[in-house]
Amino acid sequence: MRQTTPRRGRPPSITRDQIVERALVLLDDVGADGLTMKSLAADLGVTTMALYRHVDDKENLLVLSLDAVAEPLGAIDFPDDPRDRITTAMTELYRTLTAHPWVPEALIRPQRAGRGALLLVDAVLGAAHDLTGDHRTALAAYRALWSLTLGSVLSHLRQRAEGTPLTTERMDDLVATLPPGAVPNLRACAELDGTPSTVDDFAAGLAAMMTGLFGPAES
């Protein structure tokens, strides 16, 4: 019988969970483009090779990080009412994406998707099917809901990062090149657009879209 000799040497100084946990902090701070395996290793106090024992490369790290961000979405206790189900799902998605500014851009690559997000999408599609009775219509409704959510997230993140887009110096300069009576609606809204949009603003837009997609809620 062959005897196996125990491996010698230092035990691993870090785990994959620790790597992903710290990567999430740095991603929220510097974004996907700003994160490198070298900078992450330095932040953790290990060598770059120590990271590669647990993750294949940066792409694999981003996939693992997205999976960690999406995990809570898969644990949502969805209401039975389909409209409430959609509201809960899309609101939690909005909260998640605004909390992690790097995620929307990272999702451009099709293979980057968290498992929890798949469960959320399935819940929304199921709710939309309950309301419409047709999978094709349910898919169209989900795409519209996703577009609203992503657009609201990007608007919020830009306002948060750069100040209100309608009142930045660049926008003021552009407006100043137009005749005095031009873009009156843009000028009026700029005065109202003083702070980043909130989750309540998103909820109001979501409710309006759901009325358009599925009709008024039964009282």
Structural notes for this entry:
With about 220 residues, the protein is an all-alpha fold. The chain has 11 helices and no strands. Helix 1 (about 15-35) crosses helix 4, helix 5 runs antiparallel to helix 7 (about 115-130) and helix 8 packs antiparallel against helix 11 (about 200-215). The radius of gyration is 23 Å and the shape is flat. Mean pLDDT is about 85; it is low at about 1-5.
Assign an overall shape: flat
Number of strands: 0
Q: How helix-rich are the residues, as a percent range? A: 55-70%
Cα-atom radius of gyration? 23 Å
Keywords:
219 residues, mainly alpha, disordered N terminus
Produce the secondary structure layout:
Layout: H1 16-34, H2 37-44, H3 48-52, H4 58-70, H5 82-99, H6 103-106, H7 115-132, H8 135-162, H9 169-176, H10 184-192, H11 199-214
Helix pairs in contact: 1-4, 5-7, 5-8, 5-11, 7-8, 8-11
Please outline what is shown here.
Helix content is 67%, strand content 0%. It is mostly helical and 219 residues long.
